[in-house]
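Before a colleague's protein record goes any further, I have to sign it off. Would you go through it and say whether the fold makes sense for this chain? Take the sequence as given and treat only the tokens as open to question. The record follows directly below this note.
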Amino acid sequence: MKTDLEKRLDNLAQEVDAALSRLDLPKKRAELDKLENDLAQPEIWNNPDNAQDLAKKVSALKGQVAPWEILSTQVKDLRELLEISDEELLPEFDGQIVVLENDFSELKTQLLFTGKFDSGDAILRLSAGAGGDDAQDFTEMLERMYLRWAEKSGFKTQIIERSPGETAGVKTSVIEIIGPFAYGKLKSENGVHRLVRLSPFNAESRETSFALVEVLPKIDAPDAVKIDDKDLRIDVYRSGGHGGQSVNTTDSAVRITHLPTGTVVSVQNERSQIQNREKAMEILRGKLAALQMEQHVDNLSELRAGESASWGAQIRNYVLHPYKLVKDTRTKYEEKDVEKVLDGAIDGFITAWLENEAS
């Protein structure tokens, strides 16, 4: 039994080392050490905004590096302990190896993230489509699903923009999801989602409704996606509200139009026009970067207007009646426990899509 355990640990150690090489972990560790050293300098806080940006980079990079370093150390330590262990301890070692193998299985998904922005944060934009109140209710269901998934994944979330429906649900919702590889994981969700169920709004008749999920990379640095000022039209207007003290009486809402592509971004939830403009530009950079990847072009000047396939064929069906099933139309991956999926259990769909793309 001891020999078998040693072989399993040796195989695991080789796979972990190969993963560290593919992910270029030594280079990332060197970069992390430098950033941490910069952050430790007292003068860095003379510019609080720059210091906070640096702290975010340190946190993000640490989230990528630390789990692999811990796993690698644990495998080596366990291998050394196994060499000097007694036979009666072997069942305990077997259990520990299983845990490490499971940890590696979860971490190696990172090997599938090869895109420029995959390791960073994401911006999720949900929009109700055809289906009236049912579609707006479905959009709110998806909003909850992604918030629950983010919570279970240890990600932070912030709702940037939210437009409630008149009767139920939401018309649009924009969510920032912060954590290692948030964009790499969520980009598989980009597309049209379709719900079939008995309608709670129309005398229990069977209804089909649609919602659009747009997944954008969160791009803080203006240099990452350079946008020419002459290509922008910026409009300001008064933020909407439901009355009372929450109504903004100044023109703080911002709408930015990228003229060459016709891409429009509006933000009104921040406290000031400057904050709304910064957030709108951040989202616009993400939209244009996603459009570049979609159209397979290197420069913004090559982007073509009106060619986004956003409202194309649905990528996933959620059926609640006459049977229960969630099925991805691209990978054919499916789950019969619809309630579990709508409570945030979407990792199976994400992994299936990533593996399908890599094959």
Remarks:
- The chain has a mean pLDDT of 88.
- The chain has nine helices and eleven strands.
